[in-house]
Amino acid sequence: MNEGAKDFRTGQAFTHTVFFDENVDIHHIFPKAWCKSQGIDSKVYDSIINKTPLTSRTNRIIGGSAPSAYLKALEGGDAKSAPTHREEIDTRLRTHLIDPNLLHSDGFDEFMKSRQAALVRLIELATGKSVIPESSSIEFEEYADEDDEDVAA
Question: Does residue 102 contact residue 111 with C-beta atoms inside 8 Å?
Answer without folding.
Answer: yes
